[in-house]
Design goal:
Diaminopimelate Epimerase, Chain A, domain 1; 4 helices; 18-stranded mixed beta sheet; 2 domains; alpha+beta
Length: about 280
């Protein structure tokens, strides 16, 4: 038995998209196997999408299963990929994305996909982080970390040059730190010389650095504005995989804009019921 998928990426953050009505009894096991870049197709996660065309604009219910087999409540680039997938099927230039972190609107803008990212919060209970007050520039494992939730938790630190940081060594102790009951993503940023920021992110659930992280890009913009490092709108953010723009709309919500590309289609095998 096989299940069809389509592979999309947003600035290098790549996903297998499988229609939610395709039967996969163990989604976590399939993600662990097929997200592996040596043994499987290779991806930062699998998006299970259910398209509901009766609404105007159309709605997409999105579930993201990460390479460790766990479900993540939100992914900025994943939601942008889901929006592009839905727009291609409906011909619409706007869709609503239902995620576990809330319902978000996505629009096509000059060929790119812009998605609302909700209202970021520094509230320690919402991050979550074990602290009585919001955490701003607190030293943890050698980085001055600010904690923010942009749909998922991020520990954001500004450094002189992101390329000088051994992220694979520095990030795991923070990601699994006792301060973070649900764990955290770890994102570092440095000025790009043109008013924006270079980005690198170590993603919870992927357990590695990724080419791009949309929620991390939003985290950089939000924290930079809060700490007085920028007053720009949009804020340009440059992960290794490309260029993202973070803006703030009239409702106080962050928006994330960038390109999305459809890479290829394929099928993955569903093995024995005991395995999957």
């Amino acid at each position: 038995m096989t299940v069809p998928f389509q592979k999309y990426h947003g600035t290098g953050n790549d996903f297998l998209i499988i229609p939610a009505d395709e039967y996969v009894s163990n989604r976590g096991a399939l993600a662990e196997r097929e997200c592996d870049r040596e043994e499987g197709v290779g991806a930062d996660g699998i998006l299970y999408l259910a398209l509901e065309e009766r609404f105007s604009p159309p709605r997409v219910v999105m579930t993201l299963v990460q390479p460790d087999g766990a479900t993540a409540p939100m992914c900025g680039n994943g939601a942008r990929c889901a929006a592009e997938w839905a727009m291609r099927r409906t011909g619409a230039d706007s869709v609503m994305i239902d995620t576990q972190a809330g319902t978000l609107r996505a629009d096509r803008t000059d060929g790119d996909i812009t998605i609302e990212m909700g209202t970021p919060t520094f509230d320690p209970k919402a991050v979550p982080v074990r602290a009585d007050e919001p955490v701003f520039e607190q030293e943890i494992e050698g980085l001055e970390v600010t904690m923010v939730n942009t749909g998922v938790p991020h520990a954001v630190a500004f450094v002189d040059d992101v390329d000088d940081i051994d992220l694979e060594a520095v990030a795991p102790p923070i990601r699994y730190g006792d301060e973070f009951p649900a764990g955290t993503n770890v994102t570092i940023a440095s000025p790009d010389g043109s008013g924006g920021f270079d980005q690198r992110s170590y993603e919870r659930g992927v357990e590695a650095e990724t080419d791009s992280c949309g929620t991390g890009a939003v985290g950089i913009a939000v924290v930079a504005r809060r700490l007085g490092r920028t007053d720009a709108d949009p804020v340009d953010v440059h992960p290794p995989g490309g260029h993202l723009r973070v803006s703030f709309n009239d409702r106080g919500n962050a928006t994330l804009t960038g390109p999305v590309e459809h890479e290829f289609d394929g099928e993955v095998a569903i093995k024995s019921p005991t395995e999957l």
